[in-house]
Design goal:
310 residues; alpha+beta; Phosphorylase Kinase, domain 1; Transferase(Phosphotransferase), domain 1; 9 helices
C-alpha cells in the first residue's frame, strides 16, 4: 500500500484501537498483519483487503467468507472478531494463531497419537461445517494452523482461510476449480462436477498422508505430472512408517478414493479415528520423525505451482 492508502487504513485502525505490529502474509488482494489492541495489548490478526483489486465474483467470494466466518463458532476454526470498512478497504479482525501452520510444523508431528489428535480436531471442524452446509474447499497443510506453540504440551489446531468456502445443499455439486494443486480431487483435475464436501475429505486425506509420509501421495515434477498422478495412480503405503499403522492407513486410503461415493463423510471418518484413540503412543525411537529429506522434497515440489492467495 502507498502512503495515502496506509493513511486511510491507519485512521480506521486508530479509531478502533489497533496498532500494526508485523506482516504475517501477503497476497494478490491484500496483507495479513499481526496487530495489538490498545486497550489490553491483546494480539489479533488483521486481514486487510483492497476491494479495488477485486472483480465482481471475487467481491462476492469475500463477502461470503465474511458471512460464513461470522456464522461459525468452533474450537478448531479461526474466530472472526469484527469487520471494519472504508471506501477502499475491508479489514477482518481475526484470532491470532501464534503456533505456525502444519506445513512448517511437520517435524513436530512424530507419533501416531499426535497425528490422530490433529486429524480428529480437523475432522471435528469439518463435521461442524458440513452439518451447516459449508464446504471449505481448500484443505491443505498451510490452512491448518496451531494455536499452541511447539513447547506446549496441549495441541490445538484451527482451520483458517475461508476464501473458497461456500454454502451448499447436501446433494449439490460444483464445477468451480479452486484449491491448491496437490490437494484437489480427481474430479476437479478432470474439470468435472464434484461434491464439495467430498472434495474436503480428499484434501484431508492428502494432509493425513503428508503428516505420516512427509511427502504428497500424488506428486510430480510438473503440474501436468501431478494431475496425472492424482487421476491415475494409487497412493503408496509401503514406506516403513506405515508398517504398524494399518488401521490408520486404511482410513487415509478411503479418504483418497478416486470415486466420491467411496470416500467417507466427516462423521464416518471421525468415528474411525476415535477408535484409534485407545492406542498408546509409540516410543520416539519408533516414530516417523526422521524422514526430513522427504519434507525438503515436499517443500521443493510446491515451488513450481501457483499458490492460492489470501
Amino acid at each position: 500500500m502507498v502512503s495515502s492508502e496506509y493513511c486511510e487504513v491507519g485512521e480506521l485502525l486508530v479509531a478502533h484501537g489497533y496498532r500494526l505490529d508485523r506482516v504475517l502474509a501477503s497476497g494478490a488482494f491484500g496483507v495479513v498483519w499481526k496487530a495489538l489492541r490498545d486497550a489490553d495489548d491483546g494480539e489479533v490478526a488483521l486481514k486487510i483487503v483492497d476491494v479495488r483489486r477485486l472483480n465482481e465474483s471475487e467481491t462476492e467470494q469475500m463477502e461470503e467468507e465474511v458471512q460464513i466466518l461470522r456464522s461459525v463458532r468452533h474450537g478448531n476454526i479461526v474466530e472472526l472478531y469484527d469487520v471494519m470498512r472504508t471506501e477502499n478497504f475491508v479489514v477482518l479482525v481475526m484470532e491470532y494463531l501464534p503456533g505456525g501452520d502444519l506445513f512448517d510444523r511437520l517435524d513436530t508431528v512424530t507419533t501416531e497419537s499426535t497425528v490422530v489428535e490433529i486429524a480428529e480436531q480437523i475432522l471435528s471442524a469439518l463435521l461442524y461445517l458440513h452439518q451447516r452446509g459449508i464446504a471449505h474447499r481448500d484443505i491443505k497443510l498451510e490452512n491448518i494452523v496451531f494455536l499452541s506453540l511447539p513447547s506446549e504440551k496441549e495441541i490445538v489446531v484451527k482451520l483458517v482461510d475461508f476464501g473458497f468456502a461456500r454454502y451448499f445443499g447436501p446433494y449439490s455439486q460444483s464445477s468451480q476449480f479452486c484449491g491448491s494443486m496437490h490437494y484437489i480431487s480427481p474430479q476437479q483435475v478432470r474439470r468435472q462436477k464434484y461434491t464439495p464436501f467430498k472434495a474436503d475429505m480428499w484434501g484431508l486425506g492428502v494432509v493425513l498422508y503428508a503428516m505420516v509420509s512427509r511427502t504428497f501421495p500424488f506428486d510430480g515434477d510438473t503440474e501436468v505430472s501431478v494431475s496425472h498422478s492424482i487421476t491415475h495412480r494409487s497412493p503408496s503405503f509401503h514406506e516403513p512408517q506405515w508398517g504398524s499403522y494399518s488401521e490408520f492407513a486404511s482410513t487415509v486410503a478411503l479418504l483418497l478414493s478416486k470415486s466420491e461415493s467411496d470416500r467417507p463423510s466427516a462423521f464416518v471418518a471421525r468415528h474411525r479415528l476415535e477408535q484409534l484413540r485407545s492406542r498408546t503412543e509409540r516410543p520416539e525411537s519408533e516414530s516417523f520423525s526422521s524422514k526430513k529429506s522427504t519434507l525438503e522434497r515436499l517443500r521443493y515440489s510446491l515451488g513450481f505451482l501457483p499458490q492460492t492467495v489470501m
